[in-house]
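If you are new to this repository, start here. Below is one unmodified record pulled from the training split, so you can see the exact layout before writing a loader.
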Amino acid sequence: MSENAVLDYTEIGASIKASYSIVASKYRRDDEIEITTEHHRRLKGILGSMTSSFGRPISVLDVGCGTGRYFYCLNNVEQLIGIDLCEEMLKIAENPVRQKEVSVKNIELRCENAHLVSFPPQSFDVIYSMGMFGNGCPVTVEICNKFHDWLKPGGKLFFDAVDVATLPTAKRIRRKIRKAIYQFLPQRAKRALDEREGSVPFCDLSKRELERIMRASRFGTASVSSHVCQSPLWQGVHLECAASKG
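And here is the target side for that same chain:
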C-alpha cells in the first residue's frame, strides 16, 4: 500500500467480505491444520498468559475473529466480542475451534468492519487481532487510537501484521521507493498507483514503520518484534506488537 493513500474502507471491506465468504469452510479446515503448528502454539501461550495476568474475570475484543481460531486460547474471560467482516465466518465461529476447551463464559459475534466500528470508551481489558492486518487492512494511527480508547486503564493490546521482509528483495525495493515518492506525486499519479494495488491493497510494514505508528498513537510506546512463520499454510514473516494503556 502506498503511504498516505486514502483508503475507502467500506469498498475494501466489501471486496474482502466477498472473497472470504467463498472460502469460509476451507478457512475452518485450515484452522485445524494451523493449531497443530509451533507458530500457533507460541501465540496460544502469549494470549493465554496475557488474559491470565489480570487475576480477575475480564472482557476481551477479538478483531477479525474469523472462525474462532483463538477463542480456546483465552483464560479467565467473562465476555468476548468477536468481530469480522464475513457473516459466513461468524456463523462457523458459533462452534469455534476446540470448542470443548473454550472457557469463555459469554461470546458475542458481530459482523463489523474494524476500521469503521465503534465501542464505548474503556470497554475491554484485552484487545487482540491475529492475521487481519495485511490483506486490505492497514495498521494506522487512527485504528490504534481506537484500540487505546476502547481499553480500560491497564488494558493490553496484541496484534500481528505482515512484515515487508516477507516480500522478495526486488519487490521490497520497489515498494520502498514508491512510499518515499508518493506524497510528492500529483493526484492523477497517486490514483494510478492506488488503482494498481487493486480493490484489496497489500498492506505491509517494516518494524521501523510500525514502531513509528505506535509512537504517534496514544499508546506512545510498544514492543515490536519480527517472527518467521513456519506453517503448511503460509511461509512468511510477521511483526508482533504488544502495548498497554497506562
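Two things worth knowing about this chain: The first strand starts at residue 58 and ends at 63. DSSP finds seven helices and seven strands in the chain.
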